[in-house]
Design brief:
1419 residues; alpha+beta; 11-stranded parallel β-sheet; 11-stranded mixed β-sheet; flat
Length: 1419
Amino acid sequence: MDAPHLPEQSAEKRVRIVGSELVENYTVYIIEVNVGEHSWTVKHRYSDFYDLHEKLTVEKKIDKHLLPPKKIIGKNSKSLVEKRQKELEVYLQTLLSRFPASTPKVLSNFLLFHLYEINGIAEALAEELFHKGEQLLAAGEVFLLRPLQLYAVTQQLKLAKPTCANGDAKADLGHILDFTCRLKYLKIPGKKAKVGTSNIEEQSLPFDLSIFKSLLQIEISDCDAGQVTGLPSLKPTLATLSTHLSASSMKEIIVPEASEFAQWEPEGVDTDCPVTAIIPTWKMLTTLDMSRNSIRCIDESVKLIPEVEFLDLSYNELSLVENLQHLYNLVHLDLSFNKLMVLEGVHTKLGNIKTLNLSGNQLETLSGLSKLYSLVNLDLSSNRLAQLDEIKQIGTLPCLEKLSLADNPMCIIPDYRTKVLAQFCDRASEVCLDGTTTTEKELDTVEVLKAIQKAKEAKGRMANNEKKVSDVPGQAVGGPQSSSSSLVAPPSSSSPSLSRSTCSSQEINTCKEKAFITKDILTPVDSTLTQRCYDVYSSACDVIPQVETQIDSGLSSEVNFESSPCCCEEEWKPWTTSLSNLFVPPSLLSYTIANQEFTNQLSAHISQANKESTPIPCETTSLEGTNQGSPQSGDGYFEMTLDDTNEIMGCSSSSTVQEKTPDDVKKDSAVDHVKMVAWSLCISVGEGLSQRPSCLVATDSSLVVFHTRSEESISNLEELMENLDVDLVVPYTNIETFQFDIPEVCVSMKVKSSNTRWYFFSEAQSLKEIHSCVVPLVDQTNEQVLNSSNTQLFIRQFLNTWDFEESEDSVKGGHLIHFLNPESSTSDKNVDNNPQFPKISVPSDVLSQIGLFESDQDQTSNPMILFLTSRHLCVLKVDFIALASRDPSEASVTRNCSKVTRIPLSFTLLDPKQGCLCSAISNSRRFYNEHVVELMPGHERLTVVFALSQDKFTFLREFTRLRSNLKEIKTIALQHTKKGHSKMHNCPTPATATQRMPTSSVPQEVPRPHLTLSLLYPAKSLIQQLMEDNQCPSHLSLSSSLLLISSLKGDQLVHFFHDNIAEMENEELKHILWTSVLFYRSPDVETTACVLLSTKAIYFILDDTASSLTNQSTMWTWHPSEHKDTDFLISFSFTLKLKDLQSVNVGLFDQYFRVVGPSADHIISCLTRDGYGTHRFLQQLMMVLSLLEKVPSPEPSELDFYSQFGNKSTGKMENYELVHSSKVKFVYPSEEEIGDLTFIVAERKTPQAPSHSFNILLYVLVFQVHVVPGQTTQIQTVLHPKTLILTSTDVFLLDEDHISYPLPEFAKEPPQRDKYRLTDARRIRDLDRVLMGYQTYPQALTLVFDDVPGPDLLCHLTMDHFAESDGKGDRTQGLGGAEGEVQWCIFVPGADSRERLISLLARQWETLCSRELPVELTG
């Protein structure tokens, strides 16, 4: 809405209650307040009205009966609420009419006048500045004022009334004026949305800045420049002016007077033209930031800012650089992210510029920058610069030191850095390109390029002098082919396999002297030139290239090793050889379309294949044997023979490729360039199924599939080209279909006149690029059918609607994998006998649903696709043979040939034993590190081989992230070793030799959170405190994993926490608590937990009984106790991140507490049964939350003035709620809760009982000890949790629901059980004696009562009510009880609570019976 521009002196204040709503168990009334054209809503409950009325009756003598009275019964009934709503509306209207001129402060705050009404806003601001104004001015920090506050002050100054209308000197407007006159730094952040619950739009509010007399710096954002007045009054002092998202032209800010005067000139300028105004300049302004506006041109208003040195006009809509010649002092200019296309003559406007930022524009040429001789820093990133010749325009600038060309088309040119630096000639060492200092290696390459250039120029001059025409085209400087062809390259250099040349001994010596000319630094321009020299260098000096490669790796570690093979060698060598066709070697992935030499040789290879005779392409498809894919024979699964080669490869006599004449082939090969390259794993299905790594190449006219013959790793391009064979060359017109069968994962292809189907698996981006390249060229007769648009929808079609949860909003991955079968007969006997190798027992549990192996003889599973969702690991099993036989155009064809099995992430671990610490390097070791992951779903072990190495690391990263974000109980592996460190299989490493070993060969593990030195070496006081906290109470039952934690001492605790439990960066263990816990989802199961409080989260390490609490408990038939591994233990964990913590409910007498998060899964009660333990934990929790609160937000734009100064570092206590500064509520027991408990106790007694007997003296959580009847001599006891209440005259035992109350916000109905259920009660006067000792249970108290309950206790209940079917209702309930006695065997875990119970019980018994309580000690 448009704000009113007239003063609101006579604005009528209206109020009405427009409705009500029920919140928990009370009613909230919705109040609408109108002041002039502004309106807002306020919500209050009746108690707020009551508090307001109490204050007004004291301060303003309001009639006490003016407010509607309280109601106890039926206060939330509809009729009463409607009646009270009208009465409260009349009450508020009466108050406003009673105070028409000046609203009392308490009423003003009640109606939020201090937030939305100009008088209230101004008074609140004045009072704040009265208290803190001097401190703020002395601190010299930036002060924040919102446009609504400035609007209120501006309107107040227009009113004809005293500056202190309400009589409160603290709210005098003079405090604001005094503060603004002396303020130096101001920020005015507006917003486009409406303010709070009002209809006020800050962006349209006018305000005046003339009240500021000393401003040095001002920042205005999200304000309409037309509504800002008084800017020229800041000219005498302002040095820095920033305006964002507020102006459409520079003139609106610099010359707002231009709207009044059509013709104006700055002062001090002589002009003959008629002017209507002489405008003063901004004499002090040196920095102007007008970024992120909608400025289209640099207008003549810059004449008024002659002193500006820093000008920022980024993120605007500028298309020309103009008028900047008036800024004589301009040194730094930012024109990034505009629409600049040309820079002609820019040196005439930027004479003394030193820093120029032109990134994010549309520049294609740099012709206008050649004369900026003072330029030092130049940013040209993210433009359209494609030609290296453009660098010549800035290559001669004498002062240029920093240049950025990132994200330009020229950056994909091979050796782009050295070619750019070569343009700077002798200054190449002084230029820092793209933020990276020039290395010595690059400088050496630049020298080589310069030498080549000089040779070219010399040869060109000789040719001109002799008047001969060169036969070699492209003699222009910088032509890549001319530089290699016009020198010493032999004619055979264009063939794919470059023959080695011979060198004389003199040439060998020359190579040794100039060792910098190596393959590592050669560019495609000069690679042919130096080929002879490098070949001889390699053959003559065999050791030197190896050493140089190790040095150039950069990432290496010094280790000692023995020449004996790695421990993984014997274990994985059989798999490395037999599985070579199931994965793509990582060394091949570096050969991409960006490698110009690779693509040139590919083109030559394809041309050579086209020139061969017709049968040749089909013959090259042989797999060199009938059993390449698998050691087994006869089943055809991995088998491809010569008989079915023609059909599989799609080559027939009618093929277009084969019908071409040699002339056609030669014509095509001349123009057939490589457009796209993608390395993939190819699955081809003809009569059988075959898998192999392939290179998919898209050219101008055809699609080509290559494969490599070598099973060993490829080390260089020459070796790759020698081992690269053509599987298939098919013109685009011969492709029947080319489509995504699995979105972003698999592309399938079918060739016309062939029954073979091809499936290519690669990374998503490569598949998308080659798909978009091929599909427009393919003549598909059938319309392409996509199973779904993305992987999420694709996976969703396999699931039931109730299986796909809302939380699983994203699907990650799509990795092609194979499962290994160590039980296969083809595996090596060393593998079978090795205890480290994973054993798989199938079928078992959910894994049996996948159907991993068709038989025990299978070495690997069928190819499968692995997906990750937020809560599950999804394994997609595709029947490729059935899929190939279906029509590709059929809808949901993949759905009908596939099956998805989901494995819960919460029960899936990475095998903690995987990995090897030995230093030996081998192909088997690399294969394991780059492709193999060992998983543990439940108690099973699965070995997964990823076809693509990058898929493994992507999977590990996503798997770790998703598991750390799980909001449910999950399994964890606890290392059963000293200090909790992982126990890896080690190899003997005698110090026989030393070698630099690349880091890439080190076992790849799960990325653990980074740790600072202070976390690795904590203070001794913290370690001592953790040791004291790590004392488990004797009554808690511990599983083996919890026993391990309880046995840790000293810094073992810290190492154990970081190695096994911590999930976030730089978190420090602060406190340990042993307790019993209850989960909201399972309120009947009380389990033991070790609670670890860190600076980022609360970790609950649970007992084995937690297996019954998980949602997947019905899917798993194992128990952690069945785990027999001696190196690590399986346990359960639940993580509550502190950022998700919303509130903490503290129980009566600190006997327990409940933490509440965002959902029902995040509600956990910790039954410490010890007030001291609860107090210590809450104290540490508040301290940790205070540390989190100290981290400031990056931009406090959403905070208004009041929130910023009202944010205290200590919390605020209101209505038994401590609102911590981190916004976490600590809710303590209220009087109502005590009253409810007292009422339950009182209703069991007769009305004649004295009222003082209802007072609760002690509330404590205890265990009632029951003896299990049996024939053994040893007493078997069971502990039942109870709540014991001690009053002045009686003792009560209750069952209490510790988890359901108070009701969470999301609860739609009350719990099934009441909070308190009374089970037994006795009078203190009937207590006969107290037995203490170890006879029944250690440190238990046995209260022996006479079985004569009075008529006033449980009068309407019979004792059968408490009887139990298992015989526990025996009246003696213990050992040695005589007839007519009732024994309560009570165990109180807390020592303090136990002593307090005894002392209070003895005192009350002495008061009632006038003698001391008999206490007996038992053995």
